[in-house]
Amino acid sequence: MSANIKNDQDFGEKPTERRDTENYRKEYTTGFVDKWDDLIDWDNRAKSEGTFFIEELKKRGAKRVLDVAAGTGFHSVQLIEAGFDVVTADGSPEMLAKAFENGRKRGHILRTVQADWRMLNRDIYGRYDAVVCLGNSFTHLFNEHDRRKALAEFYSALNHDGVLILDQRNYDTIMDHGYSSKHTYYYCGDDVQVQPAHVDEGLARFQYRFPDGSEYFLNMFPLRKAYVRRLMREVGFQKIETYGDFQETYRESDPDFFIHVADKKYIEDENR
To answer: In Å, how far are 39, 183, 216 from 189, measured between CA atoms?
Structure first.
């Protein structure tokens, strides 16, 4: 990292030992958040995603959507512009401030709520037709109790026939075969380098290097696909479809990201 570029993150002397759900509060610093949209590239990401999320929500008749991992507001704005009634939530006040600013630049006043997923229903009101947890955000939860509690809160926030859409990196391939990325769908910034600095069964530490020489890190838990699907079922979701980079059919090693679409609606068919 260039000597004149200051990184306002602090992981201490042993960064790979920072394996705690509370880490994200310190990771999303003002400096990192200010650069996040360079990583995402809203225009290219909109092109790469197409209407996948919009179509999944519309075919279920969803109208009221809770975006629980809003980040800088990309999906909240996309969904508002598609006609959905959206509430924008995140655990990071820095991210929420940037999301509100981004929404205002595009002519929208976002309804923002700072919320801890583990106590989500304390901070939000009413029930929703859909909860979306996108941007590989679920990976910030480092222990199973937190993951179960968060999924239970998502489930509770939904109407009886609601849907949860949650995505994650393809950590199976990263852990089993090494890292490679097409950077086609999620991180679309042309000049930003993203790569793991450390990976083991309990930690995926990713490095984000920007054109000005600055670099930032995120410590995340490497979620395996089957494990996430199992937790969703055990919490109560009835039907779970998993897409690879927005495709229904894929080879397990190919996708950069998995998208889980989990329906709460009760079904009697046991062969699901």
So the answer is: 5, 8, 15
Place of tokens 């919009």: 54
Strand 215-220 and strand 239-244: the pairing is: unpaired
Query: What pLDDT is recorded for position 184?
Result: 43
What pTM value is reported for the model?
0.90
Asked if residues 69 and 90 have their Cβ atoms less than 8 Å apart, the reply is yes
Cβ-count burial 104-137 (b if 16+ within 10 Å, e if not): eeeebebebbebbbbebeeebeeebbbbbbbbbb
Q: How many C-beta atoms surround the C-beta of residue 155 within 10 A? A: 17
How far, in Å, CA of 150 to CA of 164, rounded? 12
What is the C-alpha to C-alpha distance for residues 127 and 157, in angstroms, rounded to an integer? 5
Question: Which H helix or E strand runs over 230?
Answer: helix 225-235
With contact defined as beta carbons under 8 Å apart, do 138 and 150 qualify? yes
- Give SS3 for 18: coil
User: Token digits for 55?
Assistant: 């179509």
Q: What value, to the nearest 5°, has the Cα angle with vertex 231 and ends 236 and 156? A: 40
Token pair for 9:
């993150």
pLDDT at 182: 52
- What is the spatial distance between Cα 88 and Cα 111, in angstroms, rounded to a whole number? 6
Cα(first)–Cα(last) distance of the chain, in Å?
Answer: 50
* Biggest CA pair distance of the chain: 62
Helices (H) and strands (E) in the chain, counts: 10, 10
pLDDT at residue 266, rounded to an integer: 82
Tokens 């109790």, located at residue: 145
Report mean pLDDT in 10-residue bins for the chain, 272 residues: 62 92 90 89 86 96 98 97 98 96 97 97 96 97 97 98 97 87 51 89 94 93 98 97 79 82 81 51
For 11, other C-beta atoms within 10 Å of its C-beta total: 16
